[in-house]
Design goal:
Length: 136
């Protein structure tokens, strides 16, 4: 399986701008710029997309592990937060709120840690990864 996306950048780093598009069409000339990356401008940025990818991957991996253990998650809400400092992604933090019937706190914690370690995006990232998880 291969996935594809295209980035187009025009101009210098401060005043230039670009668009991101994905083959699936979910990203369709989505704008990004210096302001959207380093300030609070309109558009997305690579770190926001990494945070979304990590949160989505983690939630799916945890769901797979829960299913293998015969638990059915009602809902898994994973929020990703990537920290970017001095030209490097220094950490990725996931905050999880999970609604899973009939699971012990210990089993839940074990599967959360397993998902943190085994999620393909976690394996891809060369940074500190932390997870804060709670059952609701």
């Amino acid at each position: 399986m291969k996935r594809q996306a295209t980035a187009i950048w025009n101009g210098d780093i401060k005043e230039g701008n670009g668009t991101l598009s994905s083959k699936s069409g979910v990203l369709g000339q989505t704008p990004y710029s210096f302001k959207s990356r380093f300030e609070e401008g309109k558009g997305t940025n690579p770190e926001e997309l990494i945070a979304a990818a990590h949160a989505g991957c983690f939630a799916m991996q945890l769901s797979a592990f829960l299913t293998e253990e015969n638990f059915e998650p009602e809902s898994l809400e994973a929020q990703g937060e990537v920290t970017f400092k001095e030209g490097k992604v220094t950490s990725s933090h996931i905050t999880l709120s999970a609604r899973i019937h009939d699971i012990s706190k210990g089993k839940f914690d074990d599967l959360v840690q397993k998902a943190k370690n085994d999620c393909p995006i976690s394996k891809l990232l060369d940074t500190q990864i932390t997870v804060e998880a709670r059952l609701i």
